[in-house]
Amino acid sequence: MIRHLLSGADLDAATATQILDTAAEMATVAGREVKKLPALRGRTVVNLFYEDSTRTRISFEAAAKRLSADVINFSAKGSSVTKGESLKDTALTLQAMGADAVVVRHPASGAPHRLADWVDGSVVNAGDGTHEHPTQALLDAYTMRSRLGRLAGLSVAVVGDVLHSRVARSNVLLLSTLGAKVTLVGPPTLIPVDIAAALAPGTAVSYDLDAVLPGVDVVMMLRVQRERMGDSYFPSAREYARRYGLDGPRLRRLPDHAIVMHPGPMNRGMEITPEVADSPRSTIVEQVANGVSVRMAVLYLLLGGNNR
Ligand code: NCD
C-alpha cells in the first residue's frame, strides 16, 4: 500500500480497486447499530483544514472515529496560523504530537506534497487549491460502481468549471486508470487548453453539452467556483445556466440508466436545477454517505489496518 494519498495519479488500478473493495466492506459498518470498528484504536488522525469545508471535514472525522482513532480537528481560523505561523512550523508541531495521519485541505496547490516531506505519518490530500482531491474521486468512482455495476467502459461527462476544479482533475486521473472514458464539457474559458492531454490521453473535450448527454452513463456537474474567479469567465449566471446548466429537459436527453452526480456544495439554479438535484437519478446524497466508507478504507489501508 502507498504511504500518502496526494493525487489520483498515486493510485494504480489494483490499489484503487483494493480501496473500493475495502470501502464496500466498511459500508456494512454504517448499517449496524454500533457503527464502530477497533482497527485504528490508539492511532491519531489530525484534520488540518485551512479552507472552509462541510462534508469533507465531517466525513473524514466520521471515518476516523468509526475506526476508533483519536481525532484532532484543527482549523486555521482561531489558530496560530492567523498569527503568521508557517505550514512547516505547524507540521513540526503535529509531528511532535505524534500524528499517525494528517488529512489536509489547503488553498495552495501542492501544500500536501510539502507537508509529506515534513511529517513521518501518512498525508491525505483533502483538496489543495485547484489541483487535486483524490478521496472525492474515489467516492465518485465507488458511487458509479455501486449504481452501474462497473467502471471499465463507462462514459462519464464532467461538466462546468473544470479550470478551478480539483474534483475534475482527480476524477480524470482515477477514472482513466480504471478504464472509464471521460469527456470534459464547459465553456472554452473554463477548460484549460491541453488539460486532457496533460492529465490522461484519451480524455475528450466538448463545448456542447446537449450533444454529449445522449451518449453518457454518468454526468458529473461541477460547482462554478466564484470564490476562485478573479475575472469573468462567462457573460452572466443566466447565460451560463442556459448553455451548461443541467435542467429537466436536459435530464430527459440522458439514457434511462444514466446517473447525475455533484460533489457539493451546489449552486442550485446555476449548474443544476433543484428538479434535477432532487430527482431519483441524482446520487448527490449517496455520494456523501459513500464518502465516509471510502475515507474509512483509505485511513485503514494507509495506516496498515490491523497489521501493525
Ligand atoms: C469540492 C471541493 O471542495 O473541492 N467539494 C467537496 O469536497 N465535496 C467541490 C467544490 O468545492 O466545488
UniProtKB/TrEMBL annotation:
Top enzyme class: transferase
From the UniProt record, list the reaction(s) this protein catalyses: carbamoyl phosphate + L-aspartate = N-carbamoyl-L-aspartate + phosphate + H(+)
Q: Which SUPFAM superfamilies match?
A: Aspartate/ornithine carbamoyltransferase
Pathway(s) served = Pyrimidine metabolism; UMP biosynthesis via de novo pathway; (S)-dihydroorotate from bicarbonate: step 2/3
Under the heading Pfam families, the entry gives: OTCace, OTCace_N
Which sites bind L-aspartate?
K83, R166, R223
**UniProt-annotated binding residues for carbamoyl phosphate:** R55, T56, R105, H133, Q136, G264, P265
Keywords from the UniProt entry: Pyrimidine biosynthesis, Transferase
Q: Does the keyword GTP-binding apply?
A: no
Stated EC number for the protein is 2.1.3.2
Q: What Gene Ontology molecular-function terms does this entry list?
A: amino acid binding; aspartate carbamoyltransferase activity
A Gene Ontology term for the protein's cellular component: cytosol
Matching entries from InterPro entries are given as: Asp/Orn_carbamoyltranf_P-bd (IPR006132), Asp/Orn_carbamoylTrfase (IPR006130), Asp/Orn_carbamoylTrfase_sf (IPR036901), Asp_carbamoyltransf (IPR002082), Asp_carbamoyltransf_Asp/Orn-bd (IPR006131)
Q: Which PANTHER family match?
A: ASPARTATE CARBAMOYLTRANSFERASE, ORNITHINE CARBAMOYLTRANSFERASE, MITOCHONDRIAL
The UniProt entry's sequence similarity note says: Belongs to the aspartate/ornithine carbamoyltransferase superfamily. ATCase family.
Protein name, as recorded: Aspartate carbamoyltransferase
Q: What is the lineage of its organism?
A: Bacteria, Bacillati, Actinomycetota, Actinomycetes, Micromonosporales
